[in-house]
Amino acid sequence: MRRLRSTSKIGSCPCCFIIPPHMLHRLATSGDPALAETAGRTLRETQSLVAFRAQLSTGAPSPAAARHKGLRRQVFDCKGSSDLPGNLIRSENGPASRDKAVNEAYDNAGTTWEFYSKIFGRESVDNHGKALVSSVHYGQKYDNAFWDTRQMVYGDGDGVIFQRFTAALDVIAHELTHGVTQFTAQLAYQDQPGALNESMSDVFGSMVKQWALGQTVDQADWLIGAAIMAPGFQGRALRDMANPGTAYDDPRLGKDLQPGNMKDYVQSSFDNGGVHINSGIPNRAFVLAAKAIGGHSWEIAGKIWYHTLTERLTGTADFAKCAAETVSVARDLFPGDASIAAKVAKAWADVGVLEEASPATALANVSAAYVIAPRMMEIAAAAMPAAKKKKASPKKAAAKSSRAASKKKAKSAGGR
Ligand SMILES: [Zn+2]
């Protein structure tokens, strides 16, 4: 298990950014004065945004609240300022702009909305028809894009490592999925629940791109953010869901830190407990499950993950809880094909969250072919407060998982 130490910490995150703080810190100390200046400014603005957005209220709409039907988009232009939302440039059914970023924000938000509507019958991020508001050209060479609990915001990037953040459909779908999580599971933006929050955004971000391109699981590249990387960047993308830890190796940005297995789980005080780092583990579990099942990711694996996110998970869910629920949902949604649940369980075993039960256990209970892996139990026990740890047996600790620690640390849900 690797440990990372931070020199500064961004606390519970009510805004969800596509570029995590450890990447910006690395750029800020890269020795390249222009990149360091831009990354440093992005980090400072990020901290003040987080502090401001923490005051906003963000619960799910009441079931009785008014529902709007249909797609409603608005795109604003900040013209290099940090004042949101900026000037309204394009509205639903309005003419296209001469500005590429405006049209990309409009089109990619529309594709994401259509995906959720056609595949899952969801009416916008809140299922109540919330208007999709985007602001482009935020700040000066701003190195990020984010969902601020109410709208999407896009910077233009430094032009060397990152370029126009509106260019990637998977980035826009990733950020809007933070909105879906905000209005459903409300996964806390810390430690394993936070890494699940990030993973759900990558899973549906990639799925929307695959759906738009008509790709099967074998045709998909499983990359996140390939289209926002500038020509000077050394790597393929921000993250590689199929091969976590291999997306980039850049002298200014460092190496991709994502693990793809619980044995490499990173205990970090950075990035809200490594939410953009350890998300590699559930990301890879989804890819393995989707590939084992085959076809289009949104048809079976995507339905299982969507149902799990919107109906089964709550704010403190950890990887083991997500594994158990996806297996259970696979059985419930596809009762006629037991191989689907078995493939989902094997995917979680292949990333070290579950492991195959001993023959004796498996024979005694045919439904318990997999149990929680020892490494997962150790990490869950380590996350418990000291007093409880003394009393609790490892088995009990595993059962309770990391809920106690998550509760204590995470006051705000991801996307909130
Ligand atoms: Zn995110």
The end-to-end distance, rounded to whole angstroms, is 30 Å
Structural class determined from secondary elements:
alpha/beta
How would the global form be characterised? globular
Name the bound molecules. zinc ion
Mean pLDDT: 86
Order of helices and strands: EEHHEEHEEEHHEEEEEHHHHHEHEHHHH
Strand order of the largest sheet: 2-6-7-5-3-4
Tally of helical runs: 15
Q: State the low-pLDDT regions, or none.
A: 3-13, 390-416
E-strand count: 14
β-strand percent reads 5-15%
**Major sheet: size, sense and barrel closure?**
6 strands, mixed
Report the oligomer.
single chain
Which value, in Å, is the CA radius of gyration?
21 Å
In helices, the fraction of residues equals: 40-55%
Write the layout of secondary structure elements.
Blueprint: E1 2-4, E2 16-17, H1 21-28, H2 33-53, E3 73-77, E4 87-91, H3 100-120, E5 132-136, E6 145-147, E7 152-154, H4 169-182, H5 191-213, E8 223-224, E9 239-240, E10 249-250, E11 254-255, E12 266-268, H6 271-274, H7 280-293, H8 301-312, H9 319-333, H10 338-350, E13 354-356, H11 359-364, E14 370-372, H12 374-382, H13 386-391, H14 394-400, H15 403-409
Parallel strand pairs: 1-12, 3-5, 5-7
Antiparallel strand pairs: 2-6, 3-4, 6-7, 8-9, 10-11, 13-14
Bound molecules: zinc ion (ZN).
